[in-house]
Amino acid sequence: MQYSTIEVTPLTPAMGGVVAGLDLTQPLSDAQVEDLHRALEDRLVIFFREQPIDHAAHKRFANYFGGIHVAASTKPWQVPGHPEVTIIHADGASKFVAGEDWHSDMSCDAEPPLGSVLYLHTVPPVGGDTAFSNMYAAYDALSERMKAHLEGLTAVHDALVGFGGITHDGMKLPHSSHPVIRTHPATGRKAIYVNKGFTTHIEGLPRAESDALLGYLFDHVKHPLFQCRFSWAPHSIAFWDNRCAQHSAIWDYFPQVRSGYRVQIRGDLPR
């Protein structure tokens, strides 16, 4: 794909692209935003290097793509004075890290975020990559009989699974029902929309059948042919489409520090 204001270097054939030619510390032009929309649709996740953004620039970038999604379940990790910004931090005292298993961000919400913009200012000298997987490709690789079986099924996504049962100050964590196969509202393509991080069961099936089917899909979506993997450097940014991509943060750097901030972009009701 050709762009008028940016250069995009593909990371793998399946997905991912490194964007050059922009300064995200400054406002973007309409043409630049349009190119980024096209790059995201084409590559599903796009990356930026050497972008030392502050909270204002981070939020400004997210607003180019549909406004900001503030998830109630992220309240304990929100930046004081900036509830739209979530702290993503791990160090030698951490007992867990955010996003360690394959998932689509906040799929437990009634209207999950369109996408996520993660900025890391501090990264370990080695490790701490994020892996991404293409849910269009995962769907396309299914047999026609399996596609027909999954069509019309819905599954429950529960924040209690994603957050390991952690609650704060009596906060009620969300759970929602979404299609197992969703259609992307911009591209019209079908994608698998169940994930190990949040999905508990498929509705209307016996539990054993649901568990077996979900187990198959959870394994299927992480096939290497669907993936790309991003190696972070200080002041890098990843922007991914939660509607058609899953990701997993690899915690192989303990006790080193990996730290930054995430802003999520308002989405719609999966259909």
TrEMBL record:
Segments forming a coiled coil: none
Origin: domain of life: Bacteria
Cellular component, GO annotation: cytoplasm
Protein name as it appears in the record: Taurine dioxygenase
GO biological process: sulfur compound metabolic process
Matches recorded under InterPro entries: AtsK-like, TauD-like_sf, TauD/TfdA-like
Keyword Transmembrane: no
The family this protein is said to belong to: Belongs to the TfdA dioxygenase family.
Annotated GO MF terms: metal ion binding; taurine dioxygenase activity
Domain called TauD/TfdA-like: residue spans: 7-262
Gene3D superfamilies: Clavaminate synthase-like
Keywords: Dioxygenase, Iron, Metal-binding, Oxidoreductase
Keyword GTP-binding among record annotations: no
